[in-house]
Amino acid sequence: MSGISESPLSLVGCRVLVTGASSGLGRATCALLSQLGATLVLAGRDEGRLQETRALLRADDHAIEVFDLAQVADISDWLLRVAADGPLHGLVHSAGTIVSNAFKALQLPAFEDLMRVNVTAAVALAQGFRNRRVHRDDASVVFLSSVAGLVGQAGLAAYGTSKAALGGLARALAVELARDRIRVNCVAPGFVKSGMGMSSLLEARMTEPQLEALAQAHPLGFGTPEDVACAVAFLLGRSGRWITGTTLVVDGGFTAH
Length: 257
Known about the structure:
β2, α2 (47-55) and β3 form a beta-alpha-beta unit. The termini are far apart.
């Protein structure tokens, strides 16, 4: 047997919605999924950046959805509109925000805003995706978490809390949504050279010795967005058909210590 359509990693004929598709891990995930044959719905707040992502993809049948996930009350209706063009095989929630400062300086409104995008939006997306008009059988949901949700890191109390919550959400939904033939998992990246997000924020605040120490804490070195995208693709495809309720750690050995 040969050919992409026969591979367990093939996504030929699959329609996948990716939030946070305008840059970083979301953009890299879109690029790989398109190579594997998926038809994508690219979601984000900036149409121009979404157009840049679409220009990187194979084929030209990918859709763009400009949407602000902070409007959580509108997510279910939005997913119904997205699915009007065809039910979804997969949902990748890559969008997120970060608050990084000392815990004593953490402002509760900023914490609540972060939780709305990182966690409440994930809940609303899963609720909307569960609708029979939105997903197809044997569907897969992947939340982008972080090792910050597994290992304590100073200055990341809010961010780490939100990412830890995604792991708990995935485990609960894996049990409850199995009856709907929906698998739910997380991918937890370590330090990734993505040009944005937690990695770039930490990098901007670190001295060269601190960055070197962080690199040494990753036995396989820093990762790339493509490393994370491969894990997402694995969970979306038939390769992940018997995996649900887990957090796949992709961190170059950071949490192995």
